[in-house]
Amino acid sequence: MYSFKRICGLLINNPDLYDARISHVEETTGRLEKSLVPVTCANPCEYGHPDYPNSFSIDLTSEMLGSVKPYQRQVIISTGKSDWEREIADEEGSLAMHLSSASKHYRRPPGSHGATSRTKKQDVRNPPGLFTSSEQSRLSILNGSHTSLSCNDVEESVLVLPDYKVVKEVPRSQEGSEMLWRNVLEPTLNRAGKRDGVLKSYPLQYACVILLCSHKRRDNRCHIAAPKLQIALTEALENEGYEVYTDLEEPFGQQAIEDYPGTDEERELEFLNQLQAIADSTDPKKVLILKTSHIGGHKYSGNVVIYTPQGSGVWYGRVSPHEVPAIVKTTICDGKVLPALLRGGVNLSRPKGQESLLSCSTLQHPFYTCSLV
């Protein structure tokens, strides 16, 4: 069993660098606090856990915060796999290929953002890597390990984050990708999206969704890390009373967001009410863990992204099974960020007095409103 300090020294083969790293973490913590991000000063780990192979080599010295490219939305497409073509958009006939084409076709001009005109300027400047989704327009496209909920083998189920919903039956075609873009992903749309009479989406019924990069054809390190992290996360979450799922559940008994009554604004409010109920639910608390294609930053493996119903997404890097119990207790249970592991994040700032990511988001935008509390 090694302390966190000793582990750091062993991994970088130079224990003298530990003090420099701690100083850097303290500096990062101060910057996050100034941006009103809930943080903790705890070390990620003080206990022994199964580790990666000796040949598992990652970057342990360079600046990790700021290594996330900002985006407005991130979609996770069902494939039932944990590895893919090196470039997922190169797979002929895949929804990733079609959606990549559609997003380029509809892409906004440089300098044009999704909803900036509706968003109040922030009072503080975010550190690098931390961003507000409503001030972005980029779409991030990933493949996921989940299987499609559709009975039709030419339709996929697509998670849309941080909106926190799943679009159940998206045709694997150019027409399907264009429908998805127009009615769900277009940057000016709120979380509830448009009614189109075809696509149906549902709130994700989980306390959080955890993404683990497992893309072997891009880098073997994430392929090694992902299954070990999944095992460690499952154990730690179950110890905290969570039910862990590695595939989507059928939304039995749920009303599609598109079928909510009223105006678009009323549907949006109802969707946010549903998300608040999911966040507040304790019987039972469920977590979804999915493996995904390349998210960037393989040199910081293992890569872990945690999304919550409140519309936040925390990106962690350099995660091994050692850090998992602290991530579960600190971030998932208590809503605090671990600065030592932080690569970046979306919608992490909270108002003064709200000291947890599990509190309502601060964003004054139809995507994220505090009117639910």
UniProtKB/TrEMBL annotation:
Annotated region (Disordered), positions in chain: 100-135
Signal peptide: none
Designated name of the protein: Uncharacterized protein
Source organism: Clathrus columnatus
Taxonomy of the source species: Eukaryota, Fungi, Dikarya, Basidiomycota, Agaricomycotina
